[in-house]
Amino acid sequence: MPAKKDIPNILIDAALKLAAEKSWHDVTMIDIARSAGLSLADCHAHCNGKGDILRRFIRKIDHEVLADLDADDFNEPGHDRLIAVIMARFDALADYRPALRSIIAARGDLGPADSIRAIKSHFGSMRWMLDASGFRTSGLHGSLRVTGLTAIYARTFRQWLDDDSTDFGPTMAYLDRELSRAADWDGQVEKGLGKAAKLCRKLSENCRRFSSKKSSGTTDTTAPDLRQ
Predict the structure, then answer these.
(1) Contact 132, 69 (CB under 8 A)
(2) 86-120 b/e with 16+ CB inside 10 Å = b?
(3) All domains in the chain, ordered by first residue
(4) CA-based angle 114:119:125, to the nearest 5?
(5) pLDDT digits (tens, 9 = 90+) for 119-161
(6) What CA–CA distance (Å, rounded) separates 35 from 97?
(7) Burial of residue 131 (number of CB atoms within 10 Å: 0-12, 13-18, 19+)
(8) From CA 157, how far away is CA 210, in angstroms rounded?
(9) Rounded Cα–Cα distance for residues 73 and 67 (Å)
(10) 31-45, 152-166, 201-215: least confidently modelled range
(11) Which class for 71: exposed (0-12), middle (13-18), buried (19 or more C-beta within 10 A)?
(12) Residue ranges of the HTH tetR-type domain (predicted)?
């Protein structure tokens, strides 16, 4: 019996091995248990099904990418760091490409609940990739960045799956173009949110002044000037 801490990785390896051999849709938990040399009870104790195994795989890849970061990389421009981080992710996934093609073809074989969890996992991964590249991911702007990178990654991932080059050069070039376009959009969003925040502050200040005048008993009932 493997050590309990090793069982999740054993299940991941068994599931992806089977996915590389046949359609992910046809892979059952019995198949995974047999391939892993475990009982169904052991599987049940460490995962909630195929969807859970895929989410654990995503977290495993996240950890591998983050653990391999070099502190010197943090001195590079954010755009370059983000490209390096995403390409490192593809390098970590390279050995699993046959399995990933099978999983993508079956759309993960996920039900509604697992699909929502999978989306949440991917958003979480992209947040970590942005954090690792030095981008702020908090607040509305950060959430928009995470959403944008998730969409870019999904498109680049499909490009990477069909990239037969030895160095994934076409994938890197595609990613560079997509991120460059996104950078222009990100800058416009930052300016727009900055203007909106400034307007909200002025509106709040004017409303406080107007409220203060009313409470002090002044007869000036002029509405707050929102044009300032």
Answers:
(1) yes
(2) bbbbbebbeebeebbebbeebebbbeeebeebbee
(3) 50-188 (1.10.357.10)
(4) 125
(5) 899 999 999 999 999 899 999 888 999 999 999 999 999 999 9
(6) 19
(7) middle
(8) 54
(9) 13
(10) 201-215
(11) exposed
(12) 5-65
DSSP state letters, the chain: ---GGGHHHHHHHHHHHHHHHS-GGG--HHHHHHHHT--HHHHHHH-SSHHHHHHHHHHHHHHHHHHT--GGGGGS-HHHHHHHHHHHHHHHHGGGHHHHHHHHHTGGG--HHHHHHHHHHHHHHHHHHHHHTT----HHHHHHHHHHHHHHHHHHHHHHHT--SSS-HHHHHHHHHHHHHHHHHHHHHHHHHHHHHHHHHHHHHHHHHHHHHHHTT----PPP-TT-
Q: Which two tokens stand for residue 221?
A: 């009932």
Alpha-carbon gap, residue 107 to 115, rounded angstroms:
9
DSSP per residue over 130-151, as a string? HHHTT----HHHHHHHHHHHHH
CA separation for the pair 34, 78 (Å, rounded): 45
206 burial (CB, 10 Å; 0-12 / 13-18 / 19+) is: middle
Closest CA to 30 of 105, 38, 106: 38
- What one-letter code names the amino acid at 42? D
- Count how many Cα atoms sit within 13 Å of the Cα of residue 103 in the half-sphere of its side chain: 24
